[in-house]
Amino acid sequence: MAGVQGKHILLTGAAGGMGRILARRLHEEGARLALVDANADALAQVADALAGAVAVPGDLATYEGCAKVVAQAGQSLDGRIDMLINLAGLNSFAAFEDEAPARIEMLMHVNVLAPMWLTREVLPQMQARGQGHIVNVGSIFGSIGFAYFTSYSASKFALRGFSEALRRELADSGIKVSYIAPRAVRTPMNTDKVMRMGEATKMNMDDPETVVERILDAIRKERKDVYLGFPESLFVRINMLLPRLVDKALAAQNRIARKFAKSEE
Ligand SMILES: NC(=O)c1ccc[n+]([C@@H]2O[C@H](COP(=O)([O-])OP(=O)(O)OC[C@H]3O[C@@H](n4cnc5c(N)ncnc54)[C@H](OP(=O)(O)O)[C@@H]3O)[C@@H](O)[C@H]2O)c1
Predict the structure, then answer these.
(1) I need a labelling partner for 99 at 20 to 30 A (CA). Which of 1, 124, 213, 251 fits?
(2) Does the beta carbon of 188 sit less than 6 angstroms from any atom of ligand 1?
(3) Is 222 part of a structural domain of the chain?
(4) What is the domain extent for residue 195?
């Protein structure tokens, strides 16, 4: 089992609900960290509490931003990045006809293109050493398209496809690719409206601490793909084989979700 002790890790979304916990746990386990987030003040707080961790504030929504972050992280990690954890992400809960075109674009940039661009930048030095690990944090919504999370679902489906193809492409390279898909988690990513909709539809929600331990476990075991939570992990399989059954199972829930998605508050 591969641990993270002594590993040089670039973690994105490190100031977020799960990111700050994952940063602390990786630090406890002896990783050397370059921590990335758009929220520079919150990121500085996270990094200051972890001796030796370096804050790399940056905007991942553009290729230039991603390339800059990798260059800075590489410098602070003595030119070696053993692991890239793509955790930064954006959510959107809206009826698709109400979704702002710029929001759709932003979601695709942060949730799909940023992990691809960052991977593209770290890969050559991993290939030169014949080892490395790319960890992409997706979502159950990347396997089950969820109404009113349509843009978000599309972005996580794309991230899952990227992870699968890249894993196959790198099969003989010594570089591992993991795709880890949590179900809903209690973090600031979910607005009050999403939380209320989640309660009304009895959506299962995990604590970020629990999910972070599962992410760490998947990293240590170099798992290829992991779907967190039951029955969600089972529904992922059912949706692949019998999607019409899932259409029917979700119909009542979707009607409730629509009311929240269309409400003004
Ligand atoms: N929470 C859930 O229910 C849930 C469920 C399944 C999967 N996930 C996935 O888990 C990951 C972590 O989610 P979380 O719940 O920890 O979310 P979170 O609390 O919202 O944290 C996400 C972090 O990413 C940062 N970020 C957003 N856009 C960025 C950009 N352009 N450049 C750099 N950083 C940026 C955010 O910074 P700002 O605050 O400045 O925007 C935030 O600190 C995401 O990929 C998410 O899709 C979450």
Answers:
(1) 251
(2) yes
(3) yes
(4) 8-262
